[in-house]
Amino acid sequence: MVIAAPLGGIGAPHRPVLLEETLKFLAPERGGLFVDCTMGYGGHSEAILKSSQNTRVLGIDLDPAALAYTQQRLAPFGERFRAFQANFRAINAVLEQANERDPNGILVDLGVSSLQFDSPERGFSFRFDAPLDMRMDPTKGDTAADLLQQLPESEIARIIFEFGEERHSRRIARRIVECREQGTPITTTTELADLVRQATGGHKRNQIHPATRTFQALRIAVNHELEGLGEFVESAVDLLIPEGRFVGISFHSLEDRILKRELKKLSGHCECPPRLPVCACRAREVVEVLTRRPVAPGVLEVDENPRARSAKLRACRKL
Ligand SMILES: C[S@@+](CC[C@H](N)C(=O)[O-])C[C@H]1O[C@@H](n2cnc3c(N)ncnc32)[C@H](O)[C@@H]1O
Known about the structure:
A 7-stranded mixed β-sheet has the order 3-2-1-4-5-7-6, sandwiched between helices. It is 39% helix and 12% strand. The chain starts with 18 loop residues before the first helix and ends with a strand. The chain has helices spanning 19-26, 43-51, 64-73, 91-97, 114-117, 144-150, 153-164, 169-181, 189-200, 212-222, 229-239, 253-266, 299-304; strands at residues 32-36, 55-61, 81-85, 105-109, 245-250, 287-289, 312-318. β2, α3 (64-73) and β3 (81-85) form a beta-alpha-beta unit. The chain has 319 residues and is an alpha/beta fold. Bound molecules: S-adenosylmethionine. S-adenosylmethionine is lined by residues 14, 16, 38, 40-44, 60-63, 66, 87-88, 109, 111-113, 136.
């Protein structure tokens, strides 16, 4: 399913990733309440709503632009679809505000949408010259440029290394701090992309653009994407009714590691060292993991939508 590009967005429209697989694990044809924690432009929400007349969807997104667009696009579903601007970590508060409880399914499709990525003014991509923003909610918090202006060099290097797995992280951080010491701080996407290109020795054939990892790392830091993800999975699972499903789609190895670890813990696997007299990791058997290995998109999907290539899906069933 392809969604038409809204808001004058350019480039490819957003395609919901691993859609068939998501529906298989969420099983929305059972009807009931589903929470789409990262509604975006509503591709997954729409498919859930179409799967049965008896489904209702609460969509959550941090991005006011996604909210405005999707509320309008999915308006034909009437009261079966409602959208909330919130952080999905506040899922309990959203359910309370919606006067809803007992979801049959909860979906989280992490990261940015193509339309955020393809909107030049959002500053997510080095393909466009724009202010270095990268906030999913552009009304709150520090921009990527603010972080590069404020953080110590060692912290910038840590972010680029940990979240971007960039081996030149120290050299990039040094150059960023040199620029600000010289009174010419990095404030735009192009300035950062040029700096990274120079610090890493440029673009090699058949390799990703040298700034890709640094941009990804900064986006994760700006939006605190990994913070509290494990706790969120636990509270989402606690909200589900028996036989309810949780589906998580990630695009980054650190996110996938958190999803894997949480689902393992919630299926009763204690990861404490054997010398501990009592379990400290809070393992409890409340779910059955439905994906022994993460589910990845097939060749056809990656061909049609190259941005799906790093997606991994994990799912569980509440006992
Ligand atoms: C990969 S897109 C989801 C696309 C969506 N499944 C679709 O089919 O259109 C991720 C979306 O999650 C939102 N998002 C990311 N982190 C969030 C958070 N912590 N709370 C709420 N929304 C978040 C982003 O703004 C973005 O719109």
